[in-house]
Amino acid sequence: MATASVATHDTAHDHHDHEHHDNFVTKYIFSTDHKMIGKQFLVTGIFWAIIGGFLSILFRLQLGFPEMNLEFLRPLLGGWIDESGALDPTFYLALVTMHGTIMVFFVLTAGLSGTFSNFLIPLQIGARDMASGFMNMLSYWFFFMSSVIMFISLFIKTGPAGGGWVVYPPLSALEQAIPGSGLGMTLWLIAMTFFIASSLLGGINYITTVINLRTKGMSFSRLPLTIWAFFLTAVIGLLSFPVLFAAALLLVFDRSFGTSFYLSDIYIGGEALPNTGGSPVLYQHLFWFLGHPEVYIVLLPALGITSEVIATNSRKPIFGYKAMIISMLGITILSFIVWAHHMFVSGMNPFLGSIFMFLTLIIAVPSAVKVFNYLTTLWRGNLIFTPAMLFSIGLVSFFISGGLTGIFLGNSAIDIQLHDTYFVVAHFHLVMGSASFFGLLAGVYHWFPKMFGRMMDARLGYIHFWLTFVGVYMVFFPMHYIGIAGFPRRYYSWTNFEFTNMYTDLNMFVSVAAIITFSAQFIFLFNFFYSMYRGRKATLNPWRSNTLEWTTPINPGHGNWPGEIPTVYRWPYDYSKPGAPEDFIPQTVPLSATPESNLPHEQEQVKLEMEIMKEESEVLVANESKH
Amino acid sequence: MYGFLIAVGVLLLLSIIWMVYRIQTLVSVVKGSDKKIATGSNKINAILFVLFLLGTGILMFWYSIKEFDNYQLPVASEHGVITDQLFWITMAVTGVVFLITHVLLFIFPYKYQYKESRKATFYPDNNKLEIIWTVVPGVVLAGLVISGWMAWSDITAPAPEKAHVIEIMGYQFAWDVRYAGKDNVLGDYDYRLTSAQNSHGVDFSDKNSIDDFPSPVVVIPKGEPVLFKIRARDVLHSVFAPHMRLKMDAVPGMPTRFWFVPTKTTAEMREELGNPEFNYEIACTEICGRGHNGMRKVIEVVEPAAYQKWLSEQKSFIQNNPALAKGLESDVKELAEIQ
Ligand code: HEM
Ligand SMILES: [Cu+2]
Ligand SMILES: [Cu+2]
């Protein structure tokens, strides 16, 4: 391959001088190597995904089999199982709350952005590491602290926070209202504070790294879409997480220091509280100012990963590279001005509702453009179904299914009926939950060889995919029907109402599907951990991909490239270029080396490129002579 | 026992995974397929996508048609008819997009599965296409939004003067209902006046409160506008009357409202559904604690004449409990007694 010759015009001995002598602690624990930090995020994220998934099985048992005797869970849940073997209703709410918090923040934010932004940004832009390895390490350890605190809160006597993952006050502010608003809520707030700090440290690093540390030739218009996605995600996070911090801080004041930001005119527990003048709706505005961008923080990296995986395995350039970037930019900006669509019936001014309805439906346009571009990328491709590719196609399917229901919810007149019903649950589990989860899995299957130098087993990957893909639809698709029928969210049981006293069979079906889908994830876990040690050895570029990470050694050390960092001469999507002998041309191959496949405007760039290369070799020679 | 069974199940599952894994690795090594770009599995996966499309497609149509009457709640308010219409228009539009995109998404994998002899088409962009599929969804969405916006403006417009005023107050874990009485004006309240006898915290020194009365059921007249004044005493709740297509949060410290015109009496709906037990219900849709799923209130829609009759039979708070008027100024007291 032509790649290697450019990438490794070698100064390997140069690097040996400052090779790190890592011991166990600096290598695996307090590591400042972005690759190790990425893996730390991944493993922690997987841990949380198991916990979060398990919690959902617990409450699905309650919803699918309300009569079931849960005595066998007593060793685990203790007093939360009452004498008759039923789950405690308060604990049910706590389970839902923790499930949401864990999935949205710990798995799909930290587990996804944390893993892949860290792992891929330096590798794909051609950098030795993040701008600040130390801050990066702090970012993980803040996340770790946050995880420990959140985990502890699962086991305290009064139970974890139980006001829904949005923790709306006054419920979340008043211990009298629900036991989870005592110590559990305090721990939730502390954990989230650490989490926000972690996100900000990570985000600043991602942004700085992408802006400053791109290798020679890696202009913004040559960045892989993964990097664009991680970059914009970090920007969104940086601008929105501080607002969540503000919301949480005011909540802390209300809870502990007697202020009335969110509290007003409350009579509870036989007592009138002194607070007046606060507004619970204020909290909702602040929360959703983060909350809506958050759904894109979760989704954009998954879309970025998908773009890369689909292009590679279609052996075709991603269709509409520029349109994809513009769509993502559009989503980034618009995501900040649609938050109040979560609040159409919160009591806010209906005029605001109208405004946010218009803005919300505008954001559907760039989302639609992305879908059409994915479809066109598949069109007349030469598709190779690696597990990563399967999960990416699955993601596109979820993105369509869940995105379309967003058009119902974004219409305030229709949302009156659907708000806080299972229709919303179906919507966001497909578009945000499942789509992002599939992005995460696609990423793991695709970059596993780079992470661990070995391959995951493809056949197990296929089984995992089909069980999960069918399973997810069996779990979430029926929820649309239940939602249209008006079943409210966060209900412990539906037997108290005539209008919801049906669909016990459908709920049972959903629960069984959920249990099967959850179990299928153990195939992945086995594959992941087994392949880490015993998988087939990876080759240098197993997917025959164009991006820079595949020019590093199979097991890259700290610093990524043993020699010089490679220079980039083209965009990352030169797949199946007419005239080229192979169906891919890595970014490191100069245009001047491929006269047979250059497009007319590229032919013009060749001259420019020659000059750069000449300059470069002069520098190289100068360097050599210093030794 | 359960624990043991689960442990056995998990063990079994793990060993099966393990065996399948070992066997198929050996097979693939023997066949040398681990070195190929695309193995036989490529074809199987391509076919599975088509099967998935057919299978789930059929399942979806079958279930959607079979269950239609179950999930489609009967509607009993004027604006509800309109929002339902919007819902189904949106369903038609998105349904078409859903089907087309999914057919393409799952047929392409079959049609364009890897062949060593073929090369993919190098097709990086086409600005015309991009513009088309930016503008077309934009226009369609604009249509949907504008119709939604018109409905929304009507629904949220101020209630007609003559609307019957009813206060619905949420607390953990029930709704309390207060009628405005003959003057159709609710008396003031102050949450600090709340007590066991005065759950609404009504300020009885306000003349408007004298004829206010409570009711265990929300009785409303068919065909006349009704205004719910909604508030909460402790945490957030949300009034949800599914058959009325009505939902509005109950917020402590910030009264909210929702007005509507019921179109079918309870009796008519019972007949229509062939269910003599049927009741219109109110549920809570904002998480509020342990009893969130039990905040039920019944709405009874009656003919206007029956409504007037019912109104005249109700006793005010003060008539029910004269002690509430204690300590009031004498002229107010007098008024209360005449009532
Ligand atoms: C096509 C574009 C989309 C539109 C028009 C849209 C619209 C909406 C609306 C209006 C709601 C509030 C519904 C209600 O509570 O009554 C909602 C809820 C939600 N959406 Fe979307 N959405 C879109 C895409 C997304 C995406 C891409 C994600 C995630 C990546 C997402 C995640 C969520 C979540 C998590 C909720 C639930 C919040 C909660 O109530 O707890 N949405 N969506
Ligand atoms: Cu949103
Ligand atoms: Cu409630």
CATH architecture of the largest domain in chain A: Up-down Bundle
Uncertain stretches of 5 or more adjacent residues of chain B: none
> What characteristic shape of chain A results from the CA principal axes?
globular
Q: Would you tell me the overall average pLDDT of chain A?
A: 91
The first-to-last residue Cα distance of chain A is 29 Å
- Main beta-sheet annotation of chain A: 2 strands, antiparallel
Domain Cytochrome oxidase subunit I profile (chain A): 24-593
Transmembrane segments (chain A): 41-63, 91-116, 137-156, 187-213, 225-253, 286-306, 318-339, 351-372, 384-409, 421-448, 460-488, 508-530
Keywords (chain A): Electron transport, Heme, Iron, Membrane, Metal-binding, Respiratory chain, Transmembrane, Transmembrane helix, Transport
Family (chain A): Belongs to the heme-copper respiratory oxidase family.
Structural summary, described in words:
The complex is a heterodimer of chains A (627) and B (339). In chain A, 63% of the residues lie in helices and 1% in strands. With 627 residues, chain A is mainly alpha-helical. In chain A, helix 4 (34-64) packs parallel to helix 7 (133-153) and helix 6 packs parallel to helix 8. In chain B, the strands form two sheets. Chain B has a five-stranded mixed β-sheet with strand order 3-2-1-5-8, with no helix packed on it. Chain B has a five-stranded mixed β-sheet with strand order 4-10-9-6-7, with helices on one face. The termini of chain B are far apart. Chain B is built from nine helices and ten strands. Chain B has helices at residues 2-31, 40-66, 68-71, 78-111, 127-156, 266-273, 304-313, 317-320, 330-338, and strands spanning 164-171, 174-179, 213-214, 218-221, 226-232, 237-241, 246-250, 256-260, 280-284, 297-302. With 339 residues, chain B is of the alpha+beta class. Classes of the chains: A mainly alpha (627), B alpha+beta (339). Chains A and B meet through helix 6, strand 1, helix 10, helix 11 and helix 12 of A and helix 1, helix 2, helix 4, helix 5 and strand 7 of B. The complex binds protoporphyrin IX containing FE (HEM) and copper (II) ion (2 copies). Residues 292, 295, 338, 341-342 of chain A line the site of one copper (II) ion (CU). Chain A: Its main location: membrane. Chain A: It holds the Pfam family COX1.
